[in-house]
Amino acid sequence: MKIGILETGEVHPDLKPRHGDYPAMFEAMLRSVDPGLEFTTVRVVAGEMPATPTQADAWIVTGSRHGVYDDLPWIAPLKDFLRDCIAARVPVVGICFGHQILAEALGGRAVKSDRGWGLGVQDYEVVARPGWMADLPGRFAVRALHQDQVVELPPGVTVLAQSSHCPYAALAYGDPEAPQALTIQPHPEYGADFMDDLIALRAGTVIPEDIAAAARVDIRRAVHNENWARMIVDFLHRVAGTRAAA
Fold it and tell me: Can you give the pTM of this predicted structure?
C-alpha cells in the first residue's frame, strides 16, 4: 500500500535536526505496525498538490501551525482535493489540522475555540465503538497541542471519542464500520521528547508560561499511540481493499 502524506505544516528548524519532519514521524509510527507500507510526501504547505486522489492508495493530512480559516493560497485547493478523495472513495486520515480541514471541506466548521489550549497528555472517552476499534480502551490518552477545534459536524459523521475540552475529538465519515475517512484531533505520531521540546520552544511566546509548565509535568505519562497506529493501518487496509474489490 502506498500512502500519500499531505504535509500542511513544518517542524521548527530548531527541532528538526533531532526529531525530523512530520512525514518522518508518520512513517515511523505506521511502519512500526506494517513495515511494508510505502510513502510519498506532497508538500502542500509549499504549494504542491497531488494531481489526482488515486496518485496514492490513501492520504494522511498532517498537523499544522496554520488554521483552516487562514487566508493561504493552498487551503481552498486542499479542501477541493479532500472532497475529490471522498468522492473517489480513496481513504483519508486527518490529524489535528487534518481533522479540522476535512470537517470544513465537507460542511462542518472549525474555529479557534474559546475553550483555550488542549495541551500535553489529554484523556478521551470512546463514545462509539465500531468493530475495528475493539482494541482501544474505553478511556485513552494521546498527546495534544491545539487551540482550534471542530465545533460543527459535517453530515454523515459519527463521533468516536470526546473529552470535556474537545467534544469532537475523533470522527468517522460514512458508515462507522467501514468509514471513508478517519480523523483525530490529538497527535498519535508525537513522541514525548518532541512534544516536550516543542512546548518548551513555544512557552512564553505562543503558549503562556503557566499552561506550558502544567502540560510538561506529565508529558511522559503513558499514551495509546500504538493502539491508534494499529487502528489507522487496519482502517487504511480495509478501505483500500474494499475499493480494489469494487
Answer: 0.96
